[in-house]
Specification:
alpha+beta; Alpha-Beta Plaits; 2 domains; five-stranded antiparallel sheet
Length: about 260
């Protein structure tokens, strides 16, 4: 469906916005809530009946269980390897209404499609419907309240589905390897692309952190640039850093905070 302006999009996805707010009330950060609701939106498009509306109308206990199941699915999508055993009833509520039995292994096996689909939601309508300022402005406008000129103009802005290119700094993850351990760029590329498809733009392992002279072996520092910034919150789940296992070699990844502040300073 095509939307003429941003306000139309917010009205159409009002339920998703309400569920997003409900997830945050469960003491989840914005990034975590976005990931969960984007997952439910993708599941609904895949034939999981009324995932978003079920979440909206669920009792407190059922909603909590649906949230825990969604987080288990997202965790499964991030894993480098499947867990030795998966509880077949771990996502029983999420799988209600599905003809064929679905377990977490289904999501692990299809994690490339899942991640790309969730990223498509985050890069598309998610840029608007998970924006607290725009959501509040639309609600106030529909209630007849007068808006600040800038917010009123933002609601009238034509909605463009395709995300505009963003600076590398917003799409970068800084990586570190222990002293004496230096993988090649191809190994890092294979790690991410093998799990989530074509998601990288470049890998640079010659980054100088500017730490001056050091005694003894020096850690390897690098930068991994993704094709879109939406991959980072999915991989890090709202945290500032995470650990990845590259065939027994530990890689620590964190957000490009230094470059982010240099761009926004």
């Amino acid at each position: 469906m095509a939307f003429a302006i941003t306000h139309d999009l917010l009205r159409f996805h009002r339920t998703e916005g309400e569920v997003f707010q409900r997830v945050k009330l469960m003491e989840r950060e914005n990034i975590e809530a976005r990931n969960v609701v984007a997952l439910w939106m993708w599941l609904e498009s895949m034939g999981f009946p009324n995932m978003v509306h079920r979440a909206k109308n669920a009792s407190a206990d059922v909603f909590r269980r649906l949230l825990f199941e969604a987080e288990a699915i997202l965790d499964c999508l991030r894993q480098g390897n499947p867990r030795p055993s998966q509880n077949p009833t771990a996502i029983s509520l999420t799988a209600e209404g599905i003809r064929d039995p679905i377990t977490l292994r289904f999501f692990y096996a299809n994690r490339d499609v899942a991640i790309r689909s969730i990223v498509a939601v985050l890069d598309g309508v998610g840029r608007v419907i998970f924006n607290d300022d725009l959501v509040k402005a639309a609600r106030d406008s529909d209630a007849g309240h007068k808006l600040e000129p800038s917010l009123a103009a933002a609601l009238r802005t034509p909605y463009v589905h395709m995300m505009e290119p963003t600076h590398q700094d917003y799409r970068s993850m800084l990586v570190t390897f222990s002293p004496g351990r230096r993988p090649n760029a191809e190994a890092i590329t294979n790690y991410f692309v093998g799990r989530w498809g074509i998601c990288l733009e470049s890998v640079d392992l010659d980054l100088d952190p500017g730490l001056g002279q050091r005694q003894g072996p020096v850690p390897t520092y690098g930068r991994v640039v993704f094709t879109t910034p939406s991959y980072l919150p999915l991989l890090l789940n709202g945290e500032h850093y995470s650990e990845f296992n590259l065939d027994g070699m530990v890689m620590w990844g964190r957000r490009n905070i230094h470059w982010y502040h240099s761009v926004n300073g």
